[in-house]
Specification:
With 346 residues, the protein is α+β, with helices and mostly antiparallel strands. Among the domains are: 80-87 and 96-206, 2-Layer Sandwich (Herpes Virus-1), CATH 3.30.40.10; 217-339, Enolase-like, domain 1 (2-Layer Sandwich), CATH 3.30.390.130. Helix content is 32%, strand content 14%. The chain is built from nine helices and ten strands. It has helices at residues 2-49, 51-54, 80-86, 110-114, 119-127, 160-164, 182-189, 273-287, 329-339; strands spanning 128-131, 170-173, 179-181, 195-197, 204-206, 217-223, 235-241, 265-270, 292-297, 302-308. Strands 1-2-3 form a three-stranded antiparallel beta sheet. α5 crosses α7 (182-189) and α8 runs parallel beside α9. The longest helix has 48 residues, at 2-49. The chain is elongated, with a radius of gyration of 36 Å. One of its GO terms (biological process) is Notch signaling pathway. Residues 144-202 form the RING-type domain. Residues 93-102 have a biased composition (Pro residues).
Length: 346
Amino acid sequence: MVVILEVTQIMVVILEATQIMVVILEVSQIIAVILNSASHSGRSTNWSTDSNANSPYGGRSSSNDANDNIRSPVRGKNSSRKQKNFALNSPGSPSPSPPVSKAPPGDQQHIFRDNPVSNAEKMLRDISFEVPVTPSQGEDTEKCSICLHRIHEVSPAQSPTSTSRGLVGAVMLANCGHCFHCCCLLPLLVTAAQSFSCPVCRTLHGAVTGTQPVGGRMSSKVENSSLPGFKKCKTIVINYHIPEGKQGREHPHPGRPYVLNGFPRVAYLPDNEQGRQVLSLLKIAFDRRLIFTVGHSASLNQPDCVIWGEISHKTFKKDNKFGYPDPKYLDNVMLELAAHGITLKY
């Protein structure tokens, strides 16, 4: 009987121990559930706060930026850092990063940019941005098409004089994105007036100016009549006035009076959206002295006359050659204006 009693007590102890183990197991499961829940919650919070970083746009808006096509000096790559540096005047954008024209530590390009001492230096400053390149980029960098060395290398044209002026390193032309050594590009600007064509793609940089006599006046008004081919809109009438005067140094015979024939000159545009755009571009062209020039008049067979320049005008409301209808005129004149560096974005 004593043995049976002891065995019974041992079994009771085992049963109590089993119950304790069950309780411990349940507590462990509860703790595991709590920890797992907390882990999932943490991952969800991180995904939410970093969702932009994980997006295909790298935290930027998915809309196309105006400067997304700006090229990097590293071949075959686009640099978002440089795109931000070049976004200097994007309307509605956040404050831009410091422009690349600000020299990095140890560089001296800011010398000529802050204080240009010649027209060539001033034009180089106005039409280009500094390109920060390092020797570590090596073969990945483009070649300067002038000296044929890579832009991370020192140009053969580098001299103590150009170094003292900060004409070191490389620059990127703003309108086309081609890169050159600073001191290679500068000599090409010495003979430029106010504009320059890229040696690679011939894109214009700067403002093209002409030889139109100074002191002229351009005005416009809208008439209720319509032009052939534009029956649903009114007509813009442009008047050009050039005062009497003498030829300047830019003309064939400086100091000699020029001949005014047929002034004020009149031209016509349809009063629609594209016609108004052309009018605004023609005003820029007139201010840049591109509408007229001084030369030989074919119709009068006379020299020293104020004649039309290279931008076409419709001087008759209805005419097969100099008037309407001409469905391609507005597109063609915008191309002519663009060839002189005048487009809707300027």
